Amino acid sequence: MVKILSDSTCDLSQELVERYGIKILPLHVLMGDGDYRDGVEVTPDEIFQWADEHKTTPKTAAPSIEDAVECIGGLLEGGNEVLCFSISETMSSSLNIMRLAIEELEASDRAFAFDSKNLSTGIGLLVIEAACMAKEGMNAEDIMNKLEELRPLVRSSFVVDTLTYLHRGGRCSGVAALAGGMLKLHPKIVVVDGKMEVDRKYRGNISKVIKLYVKDMEQALKTARPARVFITHSVDDPKIVQSVREYLERLSIFDEVLETRAGGVVSSHCGPGTLGVLFIS
Predict the structure, then answer these.
(1) pLDDT of residue 205
(2) What pLDDT, in 10s, does the model give residues 7-28?
(3) CA 71 to CA 74: how far, in whole Å?
(4) Cβ atoms of 159 and 276 closer than 8 Å
(5) Whether 205 contacts 261, CB under 8 Å
(6) What is the pLDDT of residue 236?
């Protein structure tokens, strides 16, 4: 049987993790002298509070090799194969940690590390597809071959409420952040071949911006795989999220409209008020 492991950047809810039998390997969020496991020892709200108090952005780090060995080794018990997913290799060393753990376990014939070339529920979409294929009895090699076909079809994007966190993390200049704040500019960030890029910028309050952002994707959404679409966010106003859900449901395309909270990694780098709609084309 194939067991599925993902690092915590997949941003899947506990309900989905349990539904699909997925094991999560936490990344680390570094706040001053504190080192916390993402989703286990620190929440996004605590990250925002710390960042605002200290006027800086937390750093994030890959899982420890010890945790990866323990996690993967446990899943290998009973003769299982293990398929390990990580955030894009261009964004983190998480994938390399998984490779090193597999080498240490001398399990390269049964455990495999897969570069999602994505982040957040862009990873989660592939993880769930893999879990469904594993449940159908497919072996790891066949699952990975299918994932190679699906990976370039994942559409991941977010619209960001504030440029402050991107600026603190070195992804936006101080001048650009100041100008963006004054002009109420909100960038749309897309993932292209494993890297984050600014696609366009919206102007106005975040509620209006999110509506425009989702509406602009309508044609792409109409050609999406119908199984599921994610709304992944760090938005405090439930009315904003509900309006996106209702819009997606009115399209009558998707079997499931899934909502998840952005985890520690996305929250650390993008801040509160971030929202993305993610799907497979």
Answers:
(1) 87
(2) 999 999 999 999 999 999 999 9
(3) 5
(4) yes
(5) no
(6) 86
Residue with tokens 């309006």: 243
Sign (positive or negative) of CA dihedral 223, 229, 235, 238: positive
pLDDT over 70 (residue 174): no
Residue 55 CA to residue 36 CA, distance in Å, equals: 19
Taking CA atoms, 221 is separated from 217, 250, 279, in Å, by: 6, 12, 8
Burial class from Cβ neighbours inside 10 Å (0-12, 13-18, 19+) for residue 207 reads middle
CA neighbours within 13 Å on the CB side: how many for 221?
24
- Which residues contact residue 250 at a Cβ distance below 8 angstroms, ignoring those fewer than 6 apart? none
- Which residue type occupies 1? M
Helix (H, G, I), strand (E, B) or coil at 182: helix
Alpha helices in 21-173 (DSSP H): 44-54, 65-76, 94-104, 121-135, 140-150, 164-168
Contacts of 155 (CB under 8 A, 6+ apart): 122, 220, 224, 278, 279, 280, 281
- Give the Cβ contact number of residue 256 at 10 Å: 11
